[in-house]
Amino acid sequence: MASKPLPPRGIVVDKHAYTENKDNHLRRLRRIEGQVRGLQRMIENDEYCIDVLTQISAATRALQAVSLALLDEHLKHCVSEAITAGGADAEAKVREASDAIARLVRS
User: Fold this and answer.
1) pLDDT tens figures, 15-71
2) Any idea what DSSP says for residue 4?
3) pLDDT digits 0-9 by tens, 61-105
4) Cβ neighbour number for residue 17 with a 10 Å cutoff
5) 42, 55 in Cβ contact below 8 A?
6) In angstroms, what CA-CA distances link 16 with 65, 81, 88?
7) Domains in the chain, please, with CATH?
8) pTM, whole model, 2 decimals?
9) What is the distance in angstroms between the CA of the first residue and the CA of the last residue of the chain?
10) Closest CA to 55 of 67, 43, 68
11) Residue 12 and residue 102: Cα distance in Å, rounded?
């Protein structure tokens, strides 16, 4: 089976639900990346266990916030559009969203 050719660089074919908030999501993820680097330094410097755990909790909550924002955008755009169109794609999008929610709940 032949694969589809890639679009020219810089051309967006299909926008994802998060595309409009991409800069905000990236900013938040960079902040989280900084938190994780700070955690590495805390361990390297033998900082107090509870202080490290507190920072891990903060980084975890920050990742959860990004996850919830992405899930919200997915439900509002991708899933609602698929439901409007109907058919197998709608069922697949709802199942996909349910599975993602289950993964978030377990984490």
Assistant:
1) 777 788 899 999 999 999 999 999 999 999 999 999 999 999 999 999 999 999 999
2) P
3) 999 999 999 999 999 998 998 999 988 889 999 999 999 999 999
4) 18
5) yes
6) 18, 12, 20
7) 24-106 (1.20.58.1000)
8) 0.75
9) 37
10) 43
11) 30
